[in-house]
Automatic annotation (TrEMBL):
Matching InterPro entries: WD40/YVTN_repeat-like_dom_sf (IPR015943), WD40_PAC1 (IPR020472), WD40_repeat_CS (IPR019775), WD40_repeat_dom_sf (IPR036322), WD40_rpt (IPR001680), WDR86-like (IPR044715)
Record-linked CDD domains: WD40
Mapped WD repeat ranges: 11-52, 53-92, 93-132, 163-188, 189-230, 231-270
Pfam family membership, one: WD40
The name this protein goes by in its record: WD repeat-containing protein 86 isoform X1
Name of the coding gene: Wdr86
Keyword terms of this UniProt record: Repeat, WD repeat
Length: 420
């Protein structure tokens, strides 16, 4: 068994569950999106809430933090862009007709997926919808983008590929590849017999990896649409995956993570020790972090599979992990670990744990709560951000709920997409 991580501080100020979080490229700020309809910016250095982003009329489903702007999407069918310095809303993107599940900012474009069965592309600055990608027969969940410079230079394909390729995964059991410039479907990737929950893109080989409720991962050539290989050893839904150094890590409802050779489909090792489904994973500097329905985050040696550390303190499933590009250090010279969760409503407390002295200082956060007027909003959870001390990097997590009939936990945006 691995040793336990020690909490440095707890930042609790959202009045609803945290649905997603995002670290800035420099690792200095954290953005959280909540069921309470707000997003918050936090300093990763001291855990202080820097800005409260208010304006959505329903819960925030996903968020992405860039250097100069924060992006959020919501069940109110809109996307918003915010000034990270002032917290002011700079732009509202309107066009979706149902819950916006996910957003992706890439190549000076904004992409979104929705329960309205479409994905859309937007101009970031003007907020105008530039393309609508129609063709999925059910909720569009996950997104990945391949920029034009990552695609083969073929004069015959130059016009079609000029805007890059967008890959989408859906609960209609398919993934689709779209020509961003024209909005046309380039390929439909058929083979899964269950919802496509997660997606990773290897831009160098033009290969997409999709994980599904059918317990398989499949590799596809996004240019030809050919299915290249199938990874079959999981015994439950594949909820999350990550590709790094030609190795594919997959987390499943079967309570394991598996490591595969991406180019051949050969399984290299299995990471057990989880008591519930593995809902999130992140590789960082030789360490594999996992989040599970047992409310624990874990750190494994990625090469040997040895469990190094268990992070306890959350009360709900962890389904988001992040590591920063910065190298923030604690007093011991090691990077802290960050986690976020959803728990019962309580006063907003800041907890900072000293790893060496094992002491705790508690202080109240100074930020205004904002409750939704939407009667459909759920406040059965509260949200906190926990900074963990770990040698492997910064870790960030949050909570979700159980899907009836599936027997495992998934992020809310998968939960919404799988229940009609």
């Amino acid at each position: 068994m691995g040793s336990s991580g020690s909490a440095l501080r707890v930042c609790a100020d959202h009045s609803g569950g945290i649905n997603w979080l995002s670290l800035s490229p420099d690792g200095q700020r954290l953005l959280t999106g909540s069921e309470d309809g707000t997003a918050r910016l936090w300093s990763t250095a001291d855990g202080q809430c820097c800005a409260l982003l208010q304006g959505h009329e329903s819960y925030v489903t996903f968020c992405q933090l860039e250097d100069e702007a924060a992006f959020t999407c919501s069940a109110d069918c809109t996307i918003r862009r915010w000034d990270v310095r002032t917290g002011q809303c700079l732009q509202v993107y309107r066009g979706h007709t149902s819950i916006v599940n996910r957003i992706l900012v890439a190549n000076d474009q904004l992409f979104s997926s929705s329960y309205d069965r479409t994905a859309r592309a937007w101009t970031v600055d003007k907020g105008q919808e530039s393309k609508t990608f129609r063709g999925h027969r059910n909720c569009v969940l996950t997104l990945a983008y391949s920029a034009p410079q990552d695609l083969p230079s073929d004069p015959c394909l130059e016009a079609a590929m000029g805007g890059g390729l967008l890959v989408t995964g859906s609960t209609d059991d398919t993934a689709k590849v779209w020509q961003v410039a024209s909005g046309c479907c380039h390929q439909t990737l058929r083979g899964h017999t269950g919802a496509v929950l997660c997606l990773a893109l290897d831009v160098s080989s033009h290969t997409a990896f999709t994980g599904s409720t059918d317990a398989t991962v499949r590799a596809w050539d996004i240019l030809s649409g050919e299915q290249l290989r199938v990874f079959r050893e999981h015994q439950g839904s594949v909820i999350c995956l990550e590709l790094t150094d030609r190795l594919l890590y997959t987390g499943s409802a079967d309570r394991t993570v598996k490591c595969w050779l991406a180019d051949t489909g050969e399984r290299v090792r299995t990471f057990p020790a989880h008591r519930h489904g593995v809902s999130a994973l992140k590789y960082h500097a030789g360490t594999l972090f996992t989040g599970s329905g047992d409310a624990c985050a874990r750190a494994f040696d990625a090469q040997s599979g040895v469990l190094q550390r268990v992070f306890r303190g959350h009360t709900f499933v962890i389904n988001c992990l992040q590591d920063p590009s910065s190298q923030g250090r604690t007093s011991a010279g090691l990077p802290p670990v960050l986690t976020a969760e959803a728990c019962a409503a309580r006063p907003s407390l800041l907890r900072k744990w000293d790893f060496l002295q094992k002491s705790c200082r508690i202080g109240r956060l100074c930020a205004t709560r904002s409750l939704l007027k939407n009667s459909n909003t759920r406040h059965s959870k509260c949200s906190s951000v926990i900074f963990w001390f770990h040698f492997g990097g910064l870790l960030a997590c949050h909570s979700c709920a159980l899907i009836p009939g599936l027997g495992h936990h998934l992020p809310f945006w998968l939960r919404r997409g799988l229940i009609n």
